[in-house]
Amino acid sequence: MARKPSNQGKVDPKQPAQILRLLRATYPDADCELNFNNPFQLLVATVLSAQCTDARVNEVTKVLFMRYPKPKDLAAANRSELEEIIKSTGFYKAKSNSLLGLANKLVTDYNSVVPQELEELIKLPGVGRKTANVVRGEAFDLPGLTVDTHFGRLVRRFGWTKETDPVKVEFAIAELFNPKDWTDLSQILIWHGRRRCHARKPACGACPIAKLCPAFGTGPTDLETAKKLVKL
User: Fold this and answer.
1) Among 190, 181, 188, 159, which Cα is nearest to 172's?
2) How far apart are CA 146 and CA 152, in angstroms?
3) For residues 13 and 129, what is the distance between their CA atoms, to the nearest angstrom?
4) pLDDT tens digits along 51-102
5) Between the CA of residue 41 and those of 9, 35, 135, 181, what are the distances in Å?
6) Could you give the CA distance from residue 201 to residue 204 in angstroms, rounded to a whole number?
7) Distance, CA of 149 to CA of 123 (rounded, Å)
8) CATH code matching the domain that covers 15-30+145-227, chosen among 2.60.40.1920, 1.10.1670.10, 3.40.1440.60, 3.40.50.1580
9) pTM of the entire structure?
10) What are the residue boundaries of the structural domains of the chain, listed by start?
11) By the 8 A CB rule, do 194 and 30 touch?
């Protein structure tokens, strides 16, 4: 029987670095799973990824980027045509509003160049801190913590924070790691959340950081049972 997670106390100052080291070894190829060739494409793909799988977004952007390769092309898009292309990503009307809005703002305010500064990125329609940090980290190699549902779930399980608001989570975790590790940490935790540390039934018995995790026992602890939950 799985035991309940232990009470979370203060974070052992060595534990976060140990967890990152072990997860780096487990996921040496951890990287952004959205396909893109430039900052504009990553920005668009990240907006589309809300409430949608990266695999689905990658299928959609194959068509989208051929039809609208540059901000000026997307800014001039026919709304009905755009909605039809992105429909399968869900919430397509709201996403169409965001894409048309951000493309127009890029053209009019930024000479069609995606800005690097977080403060400028979040001025774009449909772009919040999560999207901005993805673009900063993956397209510009600048420090950024991507607090998605996986990231938030894992850092709470690890006992690194009790915060649930994404911005507060971001600031709390930023205090635990050197900025040079932020982007790497984000992708590694997202990979771990998708592959082992699932929301409902984490593969605790097949987890490389089981001995360090305060939430060990939330899922099956038997190795063979847990291995069946691992998604590779």
Assistant:
1) 159
2) 9
3) 27
4) 999 999 999 999 999 999 999 999 999 999 999 999 999 999 999 999 999 9
5) 42, 8, 10, 24
6) 8
7) 23
8) 1.10.1670.10
9) 0.89
10) 15-30+145-227, 39-139
11) no
CA 92 – CA 13 distance, rounded (Å)? 44
- Nearest Cα residue to 40 out of 103, 104, 97, 96: 103
How far apart CA 75 and CA 87 sit, in angstroms, is: 18
* Residue 227 in tokens: 């291995």
CA distance 70 to 100: 12
> Could you give the residue numbers annotated as active site?
130, 148
Residue identified by tokens 């673009």 is 135
Measure the CA–CA gap between 183 and 206, rounded to whole angstroms: 25
Supply the angle between the helices 166-174 and 129-139 in degrees, to the nearest 10.
40
Q: Confirm whether 15-30+145-227 and 39-139 share one CATH topology.
A: no
CA distance 182 to 101: 29
> How many angstroms separate the Cα of 79 from the Cα of each of 54, 73, 97?
23, 12, 9
Which runs of consecutive H residues, i.e. helices, occur in the chain?
A: 15-26, 39-48, 54-67, 71-75, 79-86, 92-110, 118-121, 129-139, 149-157, 166-174, 182-195, 223-227
Q: Which residues contact 188 (CB under 8 A, 6 or more apart)?
A: 20, 23, 24, 27, 30
CATH code of the domain made up of 39-139: 1.10.340.30
List, for residues 122-132, the tens digit of each pLDDT value.
Answer: 999 999 999 99
